Structure formats: C-alpha cells, structure tokens
Amino acid sequence: MQMYNYEENILIGTGIVRCFKTGGEDFYALKGVDIKIPRGSLTILKGRSGSGKTTLLNILGALDKATDGQVIFDGNEIGELSDSEREAMRRKDIGFVFQSVALIPIMNAYENVDFAMRLAECEGEYDERIKQCLNIVGMGERMQHMPGQMSGGEQQRVAIARAIAHRPKIIFADEPTGALDTETGLKVMHLFKKLVEQEGITIVMTTHDPNLMEMGDVVYEVEDGEIVGRYEN
Predict the structure, then answer these.
(1) Hey, how many other C-beta atoms are within 10 angstroms of the C-beta on 181?
(2) Concatenated DSSP letters for 159-224?
(3) Helix (H, G, I), strand (E, B), or coil: what is residue 72?
(4) Could you tell me the residue ranges of all domains in the chain?
(5) pTM (2 decimals)?
(6) N or C: which terminus of the chain has fewer CB atoms within 10 Å of its end residue's CB?
(7) Which CATH architecture group holds 40-51+80-227?
(8) C-alpha–C-alpha distance, residues 139 and 89, integer Å
(9) Measured distance CA(119)–CA(91) in Å, rounded
(10) 137-166: per-residue pLDDT in tens?
(11) Can you tell me the distance from the alpha carbon of 110 to that of 70, in angstroms, rounded to the nearest whole number?
C-alpha cells in the first residue's frame, strides 16, 4: 500500500478518471490524474478551455464524483462518504469562489457573508467575524452596499469574504479572475496570497491566464485530461 504524507498535503488524488457518455460514446475528461495539494498553499490548475481543469476542480471539491480513482481530503476518502456527509463537508470544510460571483442580489455585502455562515452552522460571534472578513478583503467600508452598487472586482471581494467566513480548510476558485480586467484580477490574486499567509487557508484555483502563473506556490498544467507539468515558485 502506497503511503502519503497527509500532514504536508491536505488533498491527494490518485488515478482520477472522469468519463462522460456523449451520444453513446465515452468521453474521458480526465485520464488518470495524480495530484497533491500542499497545505497552506496557493495551487493553480492551468489549462486552456476544455483541458479538464474545471472537471478536476469539481471532483477535488466534492461537487462531482470521479468515475474511477481516489480523492483523499484531510485523511478522508471522499468517495466513501454518503451524499449527506459530502454535503456537510462542502458546507463546513470547503469554500467556493466562482467566475460568476453569484452574490444574492437582494442582500447587502454584510448579509451575503452572514447567510453563508448560517448555512455552515458556524459557532461563535457572527458579527465580529463578518466584519473581520469584509475588512480583510478591503470591503469593510461598503458592507451595507448591495451587489448592484458594486463593481465586478468589489463583488468578487465580497464573494471571497463569504468563502472564508466559516474558516474552511480549503477554498476552490474556478476562474475567479476570468471576468475581471488585468489590474483587478491581479488585486484578487494578491488577496489570495494574503489569505494563504495570514489565514493559513489552502487555495486551489483554475485559470487560463499565463500572467498569473508566477503568483502560485504550485502550478499544475492540465492538457487533454492529464497533468503534463508541475512547477513550484
């Protein structure tokens, strides 16, 4: 039996396969991927559209199930969990940030973060943590603003505050800078680096932007459903 260092790596995937049925044919989006995500790191999955990076992110984040292979999160085999256990893990141990920000439009910034904390059934003082998170992302002065009153970059900052509020062990971000201009995208990346350093969170994100590669601690290059390169900065 192969031994893995779960102290060093919060997430380990081995032989991950994802096969979709399309018109009676088998399409392999992932073809036996092996991957390790170091704790307290910013790990980037790099690849063009259709490379399989989002499929891989969804499996690592327990949003989708692998056709074959194994994913171990913090020492637990995700595939062996029941649907309710997986759902509880997503609510309490994982945070998500997507390209489409998906803030609740009828709630202000404060209320959006508060709603996420209640979904995760967080313990402790909500008000203090909500304000802390909005301050961390630079939105402390705008916590009463509605999403429609914010720029795209500001909305993404609130989405990040929402993702970290319940103190998850890991955050998955799918093309979080994809809808932003270059300058705003770099600000989001610097914010991610700050969260890794100050909050001790592990972040895994996808991107097709080569300008962001040097921001990652570890970069995996995904091509045609396979890992074709791994780099450390």
Answers:
(1) 12
(2) HHHHHHTT--SEEEEESTTTTS-HHHHHHHHHHHHHHHHHH--EEEEEE--GGGGGG-SEEEEEET
(3) strand
(4) 40-51+80-227
(5) 0.92
(6) N
(7) 3-Layer(aba) Sandwich (3.40)
(8) 28
(9) 7
(10) 999 999 999 999 999 999 999 999 999 999
(11) 38
What is the residue whose two structure tokens read 């040097």?
A: 214
**Cα 71 to Cα 13: distance, rounded to the nearest angstrom:** 4
Determine whether 232 is exposed, middle or buried from the number of CB atoms within 10 Å of its CB (0-12, 13-18, 19+).
Answer: exposed
Banded model confidence at residue 5, pLDDT cuts 50, 70, 90: low
**3-class SS at 124?**
coil
Tens digits of residue pLDDT in 93-124: 999 998 777 899 999 999 999 999 998 888 88
Reference 214, options 46, 12, 88; nearest CA is 46
CB–CB of 66/30 below 8 Å?
A: yes
> How far, in Å, CA of 227 to CA of 233, rounded?
17
Residue with tokens 């097709």: 208
Of 89, 131, 95, 135, residue with least CA distance to 111? 131
Strands 68-73 and 76-77, sheet pairing: antiparallel
Which residues, 6 or more positions from 120, have their beta carbon under 8 angstroms from its beta carbon? Answer: 91, 92, 165, 166
Q: Which residue has the tokens 């980037």?
A: 44
Distance CA 13, CA 36 (A): 6
Question: What would the pLDDT profile of 162-207 be if each residue is shown by its tens digit?
Answer: 999 999 999 999 999 888 888 888 999 999 999 999 888 999 999 9
Distance of CA 210 to the CA centre of its chain: 19
